Queue: 3 jobs
Job 1
Amino acid sequence: MLLFIIAIIIITLITLFNFMCAKPNDSAAYVPPKLSGNQPFPIQRKIKENQEEYDKKILASPFNVNDWLSIHPGNDKLGPYGEFLTTKKAVNACKETTTYFKILNNLYINTDKGSTEIDVLMIHETGIYVFESKNFSGQIYGEYKQKKWLQYLGNERNHFYNPIWQNEGHIDALKSVLGNELPYISIIVFSERCELKEIPDNKTDMIILNRYSLESKLVHEFNQRNKDITIEQVDEIYDRMKNFANGDIYKNSELDPFS
């Protein structure tokens, strides 16, 4: 009787094992899953290689040491240093969202209204992001219709040109080269040392913030906006706009945030 029970158990286990291992005749062929982002591998590789290129350039910049160790770069370098920090935040946001982009710094565009300089330009799948970097300190006050904004720094009171108007001029200059059809986003970035007291509210195509909020804000924008620009178009726009850049932005230059 015991042998009979053992035999039944063995037969049952063998049958169950064969059933679990059997492949139905009408089952679909195995399709390996795509990598993260559900994009074809060549595109993912292109995004990865582009990201690695910018990561290396950020890492190699002397300004990165200032950032790591919180070392003041010197008053004569405050502007380029602020542009470097803005660029670094943008690169990190692209890495977090695994998106494709190109960045140019210190672009000079001549128009019928004169020449204009763009601090940081990011060509991204979701739009053309135009950054105006204000590496200031103190309290900031301003309205959209005011030509001059106010900076209070201790007992000092300083005026500076409306950065919204300033960046609108930059975007108009870009439109003279690239046309009006692309989505343009104006981003005015104040340093962590600024307290934004009374300033206009953000809009769909205009954002004002402190630099410490920039990376998370960009991640949000990348996730919310449509990808209206293809990777091929990003490269085409970059190739066209790099002719307006102040040389190689990663070589030594007084205007180069990566020098």
Job 2
Amino acid sequence: MVAGRVRLPAGALVQPTGGRTEQEHHMSRLDRLARQAEQKLARVRARESSALSGGQQARLAAATTVIVAKGTRLKSSPAAERSIERVWSEAEQSAAAELDAIRRQQSAQVAAAAEARVAKKTKGWW
């Protein structure tokens, strides 16, 4: 046997969560979702169209087409420009709201875990 390694018998089942409790697994999932939401918000703020939904990308493309078509005729297109700004602001608000909801869920999970620890400690006290 090599030091530091444990050889499992053939067919032994290994816990898929890596030995973590269900609550720890759920919290790590929330951490991953929060990280993804933060990245999406950063991409929206950097005006990367890949961060937008399909419908938002279509609206952005339509407004851009109007701007290009009017630009070739040397005309301004304030409505299309406002439409583009509206798409980006809606996307940013949506991404920020999603991140906020995930963070609220994380804090509720932490509070529930703390309550469970306190309940476990007080149960053994008497």
Job 3
Amino acid sequence: MNLFTGVPQIKSQVSIGYEDNILLLGSCFSVVLGKWLDERKFNVNYNPFGTVYNPVSISKLLDCALKNQKPGREEVLEQNGVFYHFDFHSDVSALNPEEVLLNIENRVSSAFSFLQKTTFLCITLGTSIVYRRKDNNEVVANCHKVPATYFDKNFLTIEEMVSSLSDIITKLREKLPQLTILFTVSPVRHIKDGLIENNRSKSRLIEVAHIMTEKFTNIIYFPSYEIVTDQLRDYRFYEKDLIHPNEMAHQEITDYFSNTFLSENTKSTVQKTEKIRSAYHHRPQFETHIDYKRMCTAQLEQIKNLQIENPSMDFKKEMEYFSKYI
């Protein structure tokens, strides 16, 4: 007897391994997946520009990274003594324009460098509801607490989103012909706009993502939205705000991701990194006990063996910790 409607497990023809460089951009769900990969020592860079929700802004920032293009001083604006840029998250905001430009320059340069070697790009679409500046009709990535009267709020059309994403994918493929792109729709519910509007927004994003898979090669749709909304479909898989999926939901999604994109050999390596991570976070009752010393020695040996097989793995903090107790 089936007690839930599951999303059928798929197996991608493209595998992700420790030799790959993985760039994740988009909504806060990119951080969830990015942290999971990072904690398991994959080569990953997630949301270098901060959280970005809509496809037009994501495309614009990818274009900046591809060209290593920095904004001019005239693009930095001020509100209540805080300087900001409408295309970037408030993480880059500052109390003077020079610092904003420096913050942006550092992030763009970092993204540009990583993008040159990226083999796998994950784009998480959060919403198709956007705010446009009334003075130039430009879509903003972040409103930066500027009064609502400064914007027009509306839905992006499917045509607008497909056009924007198609332009940047074409440019990316010219520079990185072997790039694999994964599209997913964030399962986080944007109920600030209302449940009906949230569903309208998500349905457009899902359609756009599937259009992209049909229009281009080496583009994959990953069903994170469907896993939470249709397979789990229960408030026990949400945080107390009833908006964000919780740790149990994240586990379901990352398990599905692992079964979709990781080979059995890579899964085995992931399990080894998880054991090291668990040992690193464990705090013994007696740090000077001989048993703990033996455990730390064993972990260092495991790290050494993993780094022989995967030289790019960064275990610096773990090695420093375990070495203290030998």
